[in-house]
Design a protein that fits this description.
- The protein is of the alpha/beta class.
- It has 31 helices and 13 strands.
- The strands form 4 sheets. Strands 7, 8, 9, 10 and 11 form a 5-stranded mixed sheet that branches. The protein has a 4-stranded mixed sheet with strand order 3-2-1-4, sandwiched between helices.
- Helix 26 (630-643) runs antiparallel to helix 27 (659-673).
- The chain is elongated and about 115 Å long.
- The termini are far apart.
Length: 767
């Protein structure tokens, strides 16, 4: 077939299909969205035919955007296209000109499509056929919010499969990001404002703009795509193109109320029905529905309620986009905080001088000032340590490089603003986590992480992030609720999950029977903040060359540095033969060691032994029947005396009657009386001796609760409490008491423990 015959054939096919669709639209004989879908399928067929004629070597790929990309093409629309190549070449440009001529040139037979290639890297100033590398580089470094929304509807039509795979994968990452960027919503608000200004300046009083009008097609699509981009990075099932499909999915995920979703679907279908109608009249690219012209009954009926429906749609869209930011002045805001002039000079000047990082500085500078004003007002309402809160705010802004997205996120999420101000004013430990990893904020909002990656490098970052996020979430809850049991269980569960996940990943490369036996606080399911992981590696099957390789790799992966620190510090000194012993022990050797050779202090430690993600035999039965001799009790008492703190200040852990004294005492009781514990925790041990230790358990939990709170509040890691320390004063405030009364209460409980232990602890009796 000659070129002219081919062109004529394409136009004739187009005219026949269009006429059928237009007839259905003018008579309202078919669902309007089905008309759009059928017309989109026809466009795909026509474009594919023209593409294969123009690019016979299949070294480029053709993509659709806009309404064709979402298979919702209206009857007289431009088609937004993008052609991508593997490499630069003048040959492709010549073929592109032929492709454009086939589609857009008007002849006696009409035309096929008006085509628009402006949605490409660099827009009208960029290359007509970008390479895959150019595509990645441009959008990876310079892509803007409106382009992220545009690529939600990117869809491959035909061409080179490798190019299609590369471009599609990158476009998804570009549009749907793992960490939320609420600047998106502010950008849309301003984009929407421009659209509305254009609408008000260009429309006439006797017509309704179905597309650009307030509450029209563009508004509804912006609203829907914004929700997809905000949530699609966390939930890949929301990475979709179709507007109605998206509304249904958002409703199913409870991200859009069912009543609003139902209205928006109906409103969208009605708008597309009317748009199809006005475009079918003259095959004209218009979105104006003239009110006073004669219309069929279905149009006249729709006009009766259209104004109210567009107003209702406008109200729904506003709930997402919010109001435009107002001009803000921060003068005199700090005076009500009662900060000295030196603080204002030292901290506030540094905060205010950090310019916002943004392409739209005028807009985002307002967002920054609004955030700072809200932050100060929040501090005033909470009454925390304003100096501390401003110091960490300064570090936080520096670590975010003053990105506008963080300011916008915190302005929108008032609950998060409250938590951030509270943490910065009360907890140096949690504040440092946020300052080192500010991108954790969005996970902090949703209390969730994505599934773990199969890639080891990515997995390690995810595990480090999981640990930090767990401490952040559970620490903030503990500050408010002081629920010790929940805190210890949740922190332990996080450690179990991280260790189990890492072991499974490593065993793919090093298959073996190595298992983890947790000890200490980890074994007792009572991990706190800053706790090491005490454990040993145990071979439960036949030895292999991979045993030591896996163990060493596990240790290095756990302890190597990441942003925010290592995943965990580890302690393996409790393995048989101590530091000098092998790092992997056969199970039978361990059982024999515990039954015959383990020292009393080692048996104490193994009372808390617990397998991680393995249904192994409990080990207490191997040694509990051995009991303790008088010589061994004397030795344990010598160790106790070395551990007891000799300072005047109260040490929650190491004072006589402190936590370590209680823990080792009750462990000695179990060994001496040959009592196998029902649980591996100190609480479980104390429950066994309920008649003698109910007060001891209450006091122990009080000291542990205080110790964990001190970890969050103190600037340095410590277990000492003293009226001389500012941290202790802050700790007393957290417990709603005065420092002197608080210290008196702690001292009394420690003294009570000493009196109880003199009766209970076998180490203190004459031997």
């Amino acid at each position: 077939m000659s070129n002219s015959a081919t062109e004529a054939s394409l136009r004739i096919k187009r005219n026949g299909i269009w006429s059928r669709c237009a007839s259905l639209a003018k008579t309202d004989s078919e669902d309007p969205l089905k008309i759009c879908h059928d017309w989109s399928l026809a466009a795909d067929t026509l474009l594919t035919e023209a593409f294969h004629i123009s690019f016979p070597e299949n070294d480029v790929a053709l993509f659709a955007l806009g309404k064709l990309g979402s298979s919702e093409l209206n009857l007289s629309s431009d088609v937004d296209l993008l052609i991508v190549s593997d490499q630069d070449g003048d040959k492709n440009l010549k073929q592109l000109r032929h492709f454009q001529k086939l589609l857009a040139e008007r002849t006696a037979d009409g035309f096929v499509f008006r085509v628009d290639f402006d949605l490409r890297p660099g827009g009208r100033h960029g290359p007509l056929i970008p390479t895959v590398e150019h595509f990645r580089d441009y959008y990876g470094n310079y892509g803007e919010t409106w382009e992220r929304l545009a690529f939600v509807r990117l869809r491959a039509i035909c061409g080179n499969a490798g190019i299609i795979s590369d471009v599609t994968a990158f476009a998804k990452k570009f549009s749907f990001r793992k960490h939320l960027d609420f600047t998106l919503l502010d950008d849309l608000k301003h984009l929407r404002g421009k659209i509305q200004n254009h609408y008000h300046s260009s429309t006439t009083v006797d017509a309704i703009d179905l597309k650009m009008g307030v509450g029209g097609i563009r508004d509804l699509e912006l609203f829907t795509h914004a929700l997809l981009v905000v949530h699609g990075g966390k939930d890949p099932s929301l990475q979709m193109r179709g507007t109605v499909e998206a509304i249904q999915a958002l409703s199913a995920k409870s991200l859009l109320p069912a009543s609003e979703a139902q209205f928006l679907k109906s409103h969208y279908a009605n708008l597309r029905r009317l748009e199809n109608y006005v475009q079918a009249l003259n095959d004209e690219q218009t979105h104006l529905l003239k009110i006073n012209d004669p219309h069929p009954e279905f149009v006249s009926k729709a006009l009766k309620t259209l104004d109210e429906e567009m107003k209702h749609c406008d109200q729904i869209v506003k709930t997402l986009l919010g109001e435009a930011p107002k001009a803000i002045s921060l003068e005199n805001e700090l005076s009500s905080l009662g900060l000295p002039e030196s603080d204002i000079q030292e901290l506030w000047s540094e905060i205010i001088e950090q310019e916002v990082l943004s392409r739209n500085k005028g807009r985002d500078e307002n967002a920054r000032k609004a955030f700072l004003q809200d932050y100060i007002q929040t501090l005033k309402a909470q009454g925390g340590d304003s100096h501390l809160a401003l110091a960490f705010l300064k570090d936080f802004i520096r670590s975010t490089r003053a990105k506008a997205s963080f300011f916008t996120l915190l302005l929108r999420e008032k609950d998060l603003m409250n938590k951030l101000a509270w943490l910065f004013a009360h907890s140096p430990y949690l504040s440092r986590i946020l300052c080192s990893r500010p991108e954790l904020l969005d996970s902090f909002v949703f209390r969730a992480q994505s599934d773990f990656s199969e890639d080891m490098g990515v997995l390690l970052e995810e595990l480090a992030e999981k640990k930090l996020l767990s401490e952040l979430v559970n620490g903030s809850q503990f500050l408010e609720q002081k629920d010790l049991s929940d805190l210890l269980q949740n922190l332990t569960f996080t450690a179990d999950t991280i260790a189990s996940t890492l072991m499974k990943a490593l065993k793919k490369d090093f298959p073996c029977s190595v298992q983890i036996l947790a000890l200490g606080k980890w074994g007792g399911r009572e991990l706190g903040f800053k706790s090491d992981l005490d454990f040993i590696f145990v071979i439960t099957g036949e030895p292999s060359d991979n045993d030591h390789k896996l163990a060493k790799r596990f240790i290095s992966r756990m302890t190597e540095p990441h942003r925010g620190g290592n995943i965990y510090s580890i302690d393996m000194r409790l393995r048989p033969s101590g530091k000098a012993g092998p790092i992997v022990i056969p199970l039978q050797d361990l059982q024999n060691y515990l039954a015959q050779d383990a020292e009393p202090w080692e048996r104490q430690a193994y009372l808390k032994s617990r397998w991680i993600d393995f249904d192994g035999a409990e080990l207490t039965s191997n040694f509990i029947a051995r009991g303790l001799t008088s010589e061994q009790l004397t030795e344990l008492n010598r160790i106790r005396q070395e551990l007891v703190s000799k300072t005047e200040d109260v040490d929650l852990k190491f004072s006589e009657g402190g936590m370590v004294d209680v823990e080792l005492a009750i462990q000695t009781v179990l060994l001496c009386e040959k009592l196998p514990p029902p649980r591996t925790s100190t609480e479980g041990f104390l429950t066994l001796k309920q008649a003698n230790s109910s007060s001891l358990l209450t006091n122990y939990n009080y000291l542990r609760q205080t110790e964990q709170m001190l970890q969050l509040i103190a600037s340095e890691s410590t277990s000492e409490v003293s009226l001389k320390d500012e941290s202790f004063h802050n700790l007393a405030v957290a417990f709603n008491t005065s420092p002197s009364k608080f210290l008196e209460e702690i001292s009394k409980r420690v003294s009570d423990n000493v009196a109880i232990l003199k009766e209970l602890d076998p180490r203190r009796r004459p031997h």
